[in-house]
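Format notes (please read before filing issues)

Several people have asked whether sequences and structure tokens are stored in separate files. They are not. Every record keeps both together, in the order shown below: the sequence lines, then the token lines. Line labels are part of the format and must not be stripped during preprocessing.
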Amino acid sequence: MIRTIALKDLREFARDGRMLWAAALIVLLSVVAIASGFIRQAEINSERAAGQALDYKAWLQQGERHPHDAAEQGMHVFKPEPPLAVLDPGIEPFVGSTVWLQAHRQSELKFRPAQDATGLQRFGQLSPAWIVQVLVPLLIVVIGFNCISGERERGTLRQLASIGVPARKLLFGKALALGTCAFALVFPVWIVFALFAIGRLPAAERPDIIYRMIWLLAGYGLYLGFSIFLTIAVSALVRSSRAAVVLLLGFWVVATLIAPRTASELANVSYPTPSRLSFNTDLSHDMSEAAGKAWKSTFNVDARWDASLPLSKWGAALKLDDHTGYGVLDQTFGKLWDTFERQQRFQQWVGFIAPVITLRGYSMGLAGTDFAQHRDFSTAAELQRRKIQDIVSDDLVTHADPLGDAHFTYKAGAGLWARVPEFRYQLPTVGFAASRYWIDLVLLAIMFGAALASAVISVSRLRSRVV
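Then the structure lines:
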């Protein structure tokens, strides 16, 4: 009986131009988004890999020079784009891709694609994830708003009740029809994408992408299921199809377009982000204060780089200065990054009102384009910077400090530069994401269960009134 009801609705959808035109548009947009995403990602990763290789080559071939001058020049490292960024670019367009590993100071990532984008990007970037999060629920509303109310208006609902069609079978028949339409537009395209993405990767990296795709399909399945059963519940509750479409479109606008922006603003109010000026000012003050205390206790000087400090101790002083700053940098940047993560967790709970917010965080996490994995790269880059500083400082202590007043005449050669390893960043595994975003999946499951329960109650009460 469920299959019969579903087939009947599917035939009606096929005769209705709304379904065909909307489905064609969604499939076309998905194909375009995936194709352009693959092309863009191939270019980006190729350029970043080439840039990092050239930068490291320049480091190795810089010739003889004072080690501290080399550390001041530093090197650049580039963030690789995760394979599933084609599916969901997440925050990638809004964060940098390159970080300068300079002496004495931790740098932020530079070159954000969003800086060159138009104002339209605030509405979302065209991607397969955005299409499913925004357009597919709209399609469900458009084709399903009258799935129950239309039956009542035509008088067929009373006929179904008279021949003994159970309310739950009617509900799940309608849900099966809507689900078939929605999932037929999403899952085949995503499966083709997954096969293509997996085929481009080395064999050792393929299981991780497979697990990520399974988690993603589970989350998006719950989200689409929520949209389907919410549509049926509203269609059963209201008295007319016109009222149903108004309510459902209103919910879609609020939950999909207004709520994410509002949640972001509320999160920033609850956990304020310091301005760049105040952040840099506080960081410089804390580093100077910590270094001053360390220099006083170690070298008995009143100020950093005091003239009374002999050049025979400059290498040791540089090393002390750097190591003192490490703790301040960890504390200051850690506090800033913790603020960003608190803002994200705040928005996560708004998912009880607008599940798309929870889904976006979950999707970015599993795709590897969220802040947590951006922070992981920033931490790895900072460790590489400190490795360079430690190698240079140790060499100064060993070779330049014994020269005394001739400290700055010392020149290091290719042997020292080769001691600095090439930076190689390993993307976190699926376990890294799953351990952070399992709660999002639970929230999506709760919202799915709430929508299902609402649909069951609404359809059951409506059928009892008809009978």
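For reference, the curators noted about this record: The mean pLDDT is 86. The longest strand covers residues 75-78.
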